[in-house]
Amino acid sequence: MTLINQIRNCRLCAPRFAATATRHSPRPVVWFRPGAPILIAGQAPGMRVHLAGRPFADRSGDRLRDWTGIDEDIFYDRSRVAVVPMAFCFPGYDAKGADLPPPPICSATWHERVMEQLSPRLLILVGGHAQRWHLGSAAKGGVTETVRRWRDHAPVIFPLPHPSWRNTGWLKRNPWFEAELLPELRHAVDQILRETDDTSGPALPDTLP
Fold first, then answer.
1. By its UniProt entry, which Gene3D superfamilies does this protein fall under (predicted)?
2. How would you write 136-164 as a 3-class SS string?
3. Rounded to 10 degrees, what is the CA torsion of 144, 148, 153, 156?
4. Average pLDDT over every residue of 82-102
């Protein structure tokens, strides 16, 4: 069984999810293929992504695609863009209706094995969980400080806040993000996609495992 299918069949967190306010079953959202030049490392699927079965199929995804300048067709082409969250399943809601954090057992079980199969040219780190895993001590200052120091990692790595619409206030308080970071991110994305299109054949269909 391939690694992708192993993750799709994972049920490690079934008892954990059954005990949440949503009482849902695991549904790993697995969206990567070796060779994709762009890797988006996120936190965990939300409820809409859980229901849709594909990553960022929500308003956060609309904002992330705007930030990166990637249209929907390219975003969901797994030969170009891999999406690897720190937990592949929706963690559920707590009693107050807030998203629960990604269960550490997911990244401990799968993340290193997935990363061994990938060799991205551009790594986009969305949110604190992904930044701490991929950047280690360089992300100790929290999301705002890590994103503020984006030049330390560009043009290979770009740390971003979560594109949730709840972070609209953060964007207003930190205008440098849209004025300085996003143009450089879009340039890096565009350059890699252009170079990839020049050297690769047609994209593989997403029905393949």
1. Uracil-DNA glycosylase-like domain
2. HHHHCCCHHHHHHCHHHCCCCEEEECCCC
3. 80
4. 93
Distance between CA atoms of 155 and 153, rounded to whole angstroms?
6
Q: Map residue 123 onto helix, strand or coil.
A: strand
* Residue 94 pLDDT grade (very low, low, confident, very high; cuts 50, 70, 90): confident
Q: What is the pLDDT of residue 148?
A: 97
What is the reported pLDDT for 206? Answer: 47
List Cα–Cα distances, 174 to 53, 95, 137, 165, in angstroms: 33, 31, 23, 15
What span, in angstroms and rounded, lies between the C-alpha atoms of 49 and 104?
A: 20
**Tokens 């205008």 belong to which residue?**
175
Q: Check residue 95 and give its pLDDT.
A: 82
* Parallel, antiparallel or unpaired: strands 122-126 and 81-83: unpaired
